[in-house]
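Design job #97: recover the sequence.
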């Protein structure tokens, strides 16, 4: 698996977080979680959890997590560019968030350090072995702690972005293992594919109890210039998952 190539692609893509630093800083001042996230994470956030955000990227979700009740957030990402920008934003906003450069699986954090592991929104496709990732998540969680994922549905890369009607891309298959990213932000990087069944099975096999799984028609992200028919309610484009450590 070309991890170094993907890291280079992400360092390059993350320069956007630096170029648009001021704009993202403003967005971070008012960032909120998605409605489904607020509903599902409500009970966990009510107890002021210590959160670990895996593949934290620009870190806007960390500001939202703190605003929603998190006591602290530790973001982990293998892009030093992304980590440096997110770290500076947290300092500028006085947020209880800190950031660590680290490659997953194998987060450089101690066992049992998290009440909540939060991830998604373009994260899982960069991990070729979700069984190893899930074991790493289980290691980070305290007993009773939660894993929360809000992520692109594994079927979403199959849809064309045609505006007139939904179509399946002729060059992709749901059961393939990988494909090359051909849209912003990480154009050219190799994405791994896992089915929804494989994702759930990885989480359960790591010893976590599945509490919730839902699929949604709306994508978590839409490029500015696209309005695909595949995003208008007929097809799955996102999912959420909540699981609890014993
Ligand atoms: C699409 S971004 C999503 C991040 C975050 N959810 C956000 O909205 O900014 C994916 C992130 O995963 C990071 N990443 C990809 N593969 C990784 C790996 N193996 N280990 C750690 N970070 C990784 C990238 O650097 C990038 O910041």
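Job complete. Output follows.
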């Amino acid at each position: 698996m070309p991890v170094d190539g993907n890291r280079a692609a992400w360092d390059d893509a993350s320069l956007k977080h630096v170029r648009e630093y001021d704009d993202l800083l403003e967005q971070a001042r008012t960032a909120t979680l998605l409605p489904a996230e607020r509903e599902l994470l409500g009970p966990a956030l009510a107890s002021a959890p210590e959160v670990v955000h895996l593949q934290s990227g620009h870190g806007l979700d960390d500001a939202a997590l703190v605003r929603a009740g998190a006591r602290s957030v530790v973001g982990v990402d293998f892009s030093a560019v992304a980590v440096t920008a997110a770290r500076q934003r947290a300092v500028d906003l006085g947020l209880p968030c800190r950031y660590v450069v680290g490659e997953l699986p194998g987060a450089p954090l101690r066992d049992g350090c998290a009440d909540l592991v939060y991830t998604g929104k373009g994260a899982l496709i960069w991990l070729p072995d979700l069984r190893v990732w899930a074991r790493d998540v289980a290691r980070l969680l305290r007993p009773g702690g939660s894993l929360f994922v809000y992520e692109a549905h594994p079927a979403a890369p199959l849809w064309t972005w045609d505006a007139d009607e939904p179509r399946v891309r002729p060059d992709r298959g749901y059961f393939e293992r990988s494909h090359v990213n051909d849209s912003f932000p990480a154009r050219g990087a190799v994405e791994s594919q896992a089915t929804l069944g494989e994702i759930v099975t990885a989480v359960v096999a790591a010893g976590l109890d599945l509490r919730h799984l839902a699929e949604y028609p709306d994508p978590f992200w839409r490029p500015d210039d696209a309005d695909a028919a595949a995003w208008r309610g007929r097809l799955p484009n996102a999912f959420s998952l909540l699981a609890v450590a014993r």
